Amino acid sequence: MKKFGLALLYTATMALANPVVADVAAAQAAVAGDMKKLSFSEPQPVGDGVIVSFDGEQMNLSESNGKWRVVNFWATWCAPCRHEMPMLSQLQSDLGGEEFEVITIATSRNPPAKMKAFFDEIGVDNLPLHRDPKSYLARQIGVLGLPVTLILNPEGQEVARLTGDADWASDEAKAVIKALMSGS
Question: pTM score, two decimals?
Fold first, then answer.
């Protein structure tokens, strides 16, 4: 009877896990272009480091908001970040809504005034200006260079990571994100 119970538990666990595996498989199948740099992983925690909104409100990235999120770590002095940010803005315009959002986190010393000036200079007005002023969260989750972009599932867990800049407004990037979202 004990073996039957374990077999039933195993079968139930696999049945619940299969939709997630299918979503990742579909996303991996959609990988092309800049998205070839994207590495997928089993869902994993993103740490408990606090980030700060532009207005000074403290937030925890690991707290789920029920949306798929593309989370970009950047800095005002980062040239690839300057190149990539308008594409993240376009991704937010194209897919943002009840099921998806782009979040930006300036890590290290990035004064809010300089962050706002950076966004103004590159014409980005639809992305949030969050900060990780002491890089605590960035260090905790292994952000070793910039930019780094994570994809979080609706439970607030990292499922993919891309190091370096990428064309997040591309059809390839949207296909990956839509494939991940399709089973949730």
Answer: 0.86
